[in-house]
Amino acid sequence: MAAVKASQRNRRPLAALAGAVALTAASIGVWATTATTAQATGLPTPDHVVVVVLENHAYSQVIGSSSAPYLNNTIKAGGANLTQSYGLTHPSEPNYYMLFSGSNQGRTDDSCVSVGSISAPNLASELIAAGTTWASYNESLPSQGSTTCSSGRYAQKHNPWFGFSNVPTSTAKTFAQFPTDYTTLPKVSFVVPNLCSDMHDCSVSTGDTWIQNNLGAYATWAKTHNSVLAVTFDEDNKLSGNRIPTLFYGEHVTAGSSSATTYNHYNVLRTIEDLAGLSAHAGNAASASDITGIWN
Question: Is 283 left (phi over 0), alpha (psi -120 to 50) or beta?
């Protein structure tokens, strides 16, 4: 009988120890599942993010230029300016792939891609896998889902989503399909103006006016509807070390703020992924830092 009582007494501390170990293991599990989201601490959770990509201009050609009054006096003044934002290479097309998927995916020139030839993760595939929404709005695209290489002032080289088998071509819409009811926008969307409106073939003033006329109403709405507009460029004019304008604007962007931290397309991609609440990060975005210091 004494031996039985001693055995029972020994079980009690062992049971307590097992419970403590289980509690610690559970705590470690909770920490592991939240570690990735902790990296995004300080970022807002907007309902909609719209990214517009313009072309081939250096920071000094746009920021502070009298030819871009809307971008300077509204978007920059009322939003955030990244003063050390950089493209990653030349020419245009690989920069678009880097911004969209965290890698150039072997693209080193502006040639048309074989549609659906790449299966790597990207922003759109991550959004789709997470059960949320994605679309691109492409000015002068002949029709929704058209995979043509070029048409008038439309150029497929600025539309990396067509290269991926895990992005439905139907998510590539014409800009005419950009909604006027902004609550119906996808969680994340890209806007790609045509070769004139994006400043590639036409002036800074032309692009600035296009942004104001076509996205100005969304920008105003975003300020009071938990949404974000991001304006960036693919590359500079090859004369300024690839330093490009990048602006953020919206309800949770501190008006008139700026950041002198050095960022590039991978940081922008990482930030968009985290703004959208994604746990996955494509390519080099996985090791990139979020854009910080501009959020209220």
Answer: left
Predicted model pTM? 0.87
255: tokens are 């008006």
Q: Does 275 have pLDDT greater than 50?
A: yes
Question: Hey, what's the torsion of the CAs at 76, 77, 79, 81, to 10 degrees?
Answer: 40
What span, in angstroms and rounded, lies between the C-alpha atoms of 122 and 103?
9
Torsion of CA 146, 171, 117, 266, to 10 degrees: 120
**DSSP class of residue 291?**
P
Phi, psi of 178 (to 5 degrees): -60, 125
Q: Are 208 and 64 in contact (CB under 8 A)?
A: no
The three-state secondary structure class of 263 is strand
Residue 234 near residue 52 (C-beta atoms within 8 A): no
pLDDT tens digits, residue range 142-200?
999 999 999 999 999 999 999 999 999 999 999 999 999 999 999 999 999 999 999 99
